[in-house]
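In the previous chapter we treated chains in isolation. Here, by contrast, the input contains two separate entities that must be folded as one system, with a combined length of 633 residues.
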Amino acid sequence: MQPSIFNHTTLLITFCCLLVTYGCKHDPPIDPAPSTCQPTTGDLTGIAYNPTPATLAIPANFPAMVPAPNNPLTIEGIELGRRLFYDPILSADSTMSCFSCHMQSSNFTDNEAVSEGVDGIAGTRSSMALMNLAFNHNPLFWDGRVNTLEEQAELPVEDEIELHTTWGEVICKLSVHDDYPTYFREAFGIEDKAEITKELAAKAIAQFERSIISGNSKYDKFIRGDLFLNDDELAGHDMFFDLAPNKIRFPDTECGHCHGGPLLTTNEFLNNGTQEAATLADFADLGLGGVTNIPSDNGKFRVPTLRNIEHSAPYMHDGRFETLEEVIDHYSSGGKSSPNKDVLVYPVTLDSIQRSELLAFLKTFTDTTFMNSQVYSNPF
Amino acid sequence: MKNILILLIVSLTLLGCKDKPTTLTVNFKAVYDGAPLLLDEITTYNYFDGSPIKMTGFRFYVSDVKLYAGAEVVQIIDIEDIDFTSNNKTSTGATEGQSIVITDPVSGNYDKIEFSIGVPAADNASLPASFGYDHPLGPSNQSEYWDSWNSYIFAKIEGRQDADSNGEFVGFTYHTGVDDMFRTRAISTNFEVAEGKENTLQFEVDAKKIFANSQSTIDLVNDPVVHTLPSNTSSMIFSSTISDNLINSISIR
């Protein structure tokens, strides 16, 4: 009988292991482990507080920054924000931070269709490129759920799928850290370690994000009159912006309406035909409509910038397209049918030459200076 | 005692009169054939051939709004972006319309109101960066500047038509711009800005009238997308018609 008992035990253990494994893969995120951090206090007034106003180098063809009177840029604030942006101290298990999904070498995206957080659970949308946010006057995230960078910076820390910790835990870890209390003092003038707050941390991250500016692509230089585009790029430019009278040779691809101006985006919220929907209620991802609860907003997402677009793959809010060629195919096909698909997304016939010209123009948006800049790099 | 009371009442009355400000609310309401214009992707209206259409986007720049009293002129609006696209998603927003409140306008009796649609040439030669951040022509409205034209987009009219009434709506979009599309119109009407009162000047724009005039009706099927392309004569003629129709679609209520 012994072998029989052994077999039953083995089966039971195997069954339990399978259950645990299955549970790990599919259960909702569990609460973070209880904190072991003990909050601390400590006088910081012995450290000088003389913040230096920061003046950003704004490209000549750019608009003015969106005013942020409650969070003026300082050298100290930006530097603190940069450290927080890159420091895994922001996550539950100290393995991830903002940079995990927004890598400078990947145009501040992660080159994944959708991103995974600290628990290995994937989200439902692609990470957005972070640059020129100082000039964006519209709500943020793909669905416009917040209005300011400060609000945005607070969310990933406690998001169950992203960094999955609590601000209380993060603030505690920052307050007992050897250096952060000094950095917060220098940036914001706090007088005690206990005055570190999530609002100040978010302000610092927002300052760093505002400082990330890309404006030195070939296209920027062309706009500033510093160089010419080659023939292919110019042909793509004329189709992109509907500039040529000969519509057979240079069809209007309608791109420039949503990706015009120096930012290469209007930052509007539009339905670009990526989701099939018979009615306004049928979108798999409601996008903006999920935030506003206005049916005609369903299926609309923020128009992303095309800066460094060749380094931002995969594309669209859910990363469904691996290549820019697929993106061109999507738009030239007129996209998927839905009641509120933008009227400018309609079938446009493009031959292989026109496609390659359009692609050549899209690549003029690449700004390698920005992607290699030490100013935005990991300080650790 | 009685005299003191009368003096107090008179003083209070005078003080009250003095403190009541004069305001002028300039309100723009959009309608389609007289009915409130809803840009909600659901509400349909009848086109001239009876086919259903939905309007999805509608905005324009109004500029140089002036009140005339004989030869006397008072400018009340320099330039504003009248954008119905967000507010008119709901019937409440459509009923409210777009308002500009002018404080301390010059009171008096006026006999003519003049206004323009578009951006005056001097301003149209400037980039959004030249204006204050929240100015109607400034960076917050960058999406209304079209680099390719070196011009602001004076008006956007967008929607969908089910030409065959088979349930399939196909989009149309008309964007006007460049100096040639700037239009000015004067309407003779008696209008009073009363001192110490909240006055309202009510404009109504009937979107249906943008698509037709006494000579022609826009063919939404065969001309679904027209931007003002200066190098293309037919595009300029079409945009010119839209620009004429738009300013003529506006009335004062």
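Chain A touches chain B through 35 residues (CB under 8 Å). Strands of chain A lie at 269-270, 301-302. Compare these points with the single-chain example from earlier in the chapter.
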